[in-house]
Design brief:
Blueprint: H1 2-19, H2 25-38, H3 44-64, H4 67-87, H5 91-102
Length: 142
């Protein structure tokens, strides 16, 4: 159970920190504030202030190429989420829903435009066109 909570806290922290750099930050911030406020540990104002401080530090770190600070900010929110989940295991379902809501959908299939141009000549054999060809065997295998 502990490993699941750590994994969920990590996913939550990743989502929160990633959302800080998007246009949807205001909505994400409000949802995160609601999540922590519902646990009663802190006031909504203090959670919002902490989030905005983290966002300002993250913006500066990304501008300066400071990966260490970015990792520290991620660890800070991971620890905060892990403590919240330990104190209130019922919060796991709400955090999962929050992560699902704020995580952008991953495209399941990449589409590409293909343009084929045929110019002159005559082909009297098979033509094979594919994105991936693992092997072509002529005759018997053996």
């Amino acid at each position: 159970m502990e490993a699941e909570l750590v994994a969920l806290a990590t996913a939550g922290a990743t989502t929160i920190v990633q959302q800080m750099a998007t246009d949807g930050w205001t909505r994400a911030r409000d949802r995160v504030v609601a999540f922590f406020s519902a646990r009663g540990a802190t006031t909504p104002e203090s959670v919002e202030a902490d989030l905005e401080t983290t966002r300002a530090e993250l913006t500066t770190a990304q501008h300066d190429g400071d990966e260490e600070t970015t990792q520290d900010l991620h660890a800070e929110w991971r620890t905060r989420l892990r403590r919240t989940l330990r104190a209130d295991p019922e919060a796991a379902a709400e955090l999962r829903a929050l992560v699902d809501e704020l995580t952008p959908p991953v495209p399941t299939q990449q589409t590409r435009d293909v343009y084929n141009t045929f110019s002159g000549g005559t082909n009297h054999g098979p033509v094979i066109q594919a994105g991936n060809i693992d092997g072509i065997y002529k005759g018997s295998r053996g």
